[in-house]
Amino acid sequence: MDYHGNPRAVIDNFKCSQCGKHIFVSPITTNSDTTSYKCGRCSFVPSDHTIRMKTFEELASFLKFPCTNEGCDVIIPWGQIRNHEATCNQRVISCPCGVCPDTYPINKLVSHFLVKHLDITSTNNKQFKATRNGLHLTLITFKQLSYLLFFYEDHDTVWSSVYSVNGRPDNVFFQINFNGLNKTKSFSFRGEIIPFNDQEHCINCLRDICKKVFHKYSTFYPNRKKNMTFSMKISTIEELLGSFIEYCSVNIMDETKLTEDKPSEGIKGNNQHSLLEDLECPICQELMCAPIYSCEIGHAICNICKKKLTKCPLCENKLTDSRCFALEAIAQKVEKLHCNQC
């Protein structure tokens, strides 16, 4: 059954009491007297909407729904609404800079920044001095596409994420580099870029001043940890560098170009390239070989990095002397394959 027989006005009667969007994202719940509803986007919000509307959901699963963003004519099947909303270029967002009250469609974000926030726009490669105190937001342009860089540090931890303004990017990631005072050592981390979602990616939530109940990390939820792609204790980074951090930089990078530039070790094809990535140490980014160790929950780490650390930089759990024999066997086979193809 298609949406076309259902007037948009009827759809608009079913609005979430928390975020104001239509409720057709599961789980859909209501209160005891069924006077208001809550959509699945806001399932984390405490409320008296405790009754699951399963029959309503079953009926809705046979329908298709219009995108509620003005200017978007896409008709969306049940179960795919959240995916579409995450990348719809007509979705309305609050200005991500935190102090600007403006709202606008996300496809106007770049022009808005160029007019009102030019001082926090940049071409690729953003560099920060280590201050141990501060929050940085930058709009970065890379290959004619735009990305929002969130970088936050306090006296204890560094967090960083990069979000795409133009939907879900292909073969693009970000790399954060830390350099020590002695300038002879550096440490890098590679992270995934995901679509920007102002309900989850909020500068004021990071500052602990956001009071929006439908924001996952606002002051209404003080026990929620900051949800950032990269998070690491400063003491761990300095242990790896062997000195204090002097500065760090963030770059947007193209996986395709990296593959072309990177020696392929005689190994061809997407599957083999993925295998090589799996064998990279998450700390130094070098290919691991025996002995390969792991932390208590299973993150692998190379022998060289293990000697410098006592805790896993990815999860803060204790590093163990347990060997990853399966990875060591794969690494050995990859090395033999490389030798045979040289």
UniProtKB/TrEMBL annotation:
**Annotated RING-type domain residues:** 281-316
**GO molecular function annotations of the record:** ubiquitin conjugating enzyme binding; ubiquitin protein ligase activity; zinc ion binding
Pfam families of this UniProt entry? Sina_RING, Sina_ZnF
Q: Give the matching Gene3D superfamilies.
A: Zinc/RING finger domain, C3HC4 (zinc finger) (3.30.40.10)
Cellular compartments per GO CC:
cytoplasm
Name the InterPro entries for this protein.
SINA-like_animal, Sina-like_RING, Znf_RING, Znf_RING/FYVE/PHD
Organism superkingdom: Eukaryota
Any single biological process term in GO: proteasome-mediated ubiquitin-dependent protein catabolic process
Q: Does the keyword Metal-binding apply?
A: yes
Q: Which UniProt keywords apply?
A: Metal-binding, Zinc, Zinc-finger
This protein's name: RING-type domain-containing protein
Q: Which organism is it from?
A: Rhynchophorus ferrugineus
